[in-house]
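QA checklist item 7 of 12: single-chain prediction sanity check.
[x] sequence parsed
[x] length recorded as 102
[x] structure emitted
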Amino acid sequence: SSGINAEWPLRPGFPLDPEDVTQDIRGPVYVEYVYCSHVFHHKCLDRYMKSPPFKGGKKCPICGKRIYHEKWKATPELAEQRWAYQQAKRRELDEVTDFMDF
């Protein structure tokens, strides 16, 4: 098992029409190559790299090798701390919203 949850989208990395290829990192079909040479949509990979589990580093869902990439250099421990901070912040905002709604 690669440790990938069921939400991991395994769609083709490149669009069928070459005219749809984009260099815009914010674009919906912008792709990233990872160390093992597999290709993933930037947004999909970003979400995967920033969500648990983090122990032992993130693994490629295709070949199972650890993912190395310049944009995601955080250690598994730091990635988990960042995720926990975001979750705590989200819970706090939800509590304030609930309180204000009475």
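[x] summary fact logged: The chain is about 35% helix and 5% strand.
[ ] second reviewer sign-off
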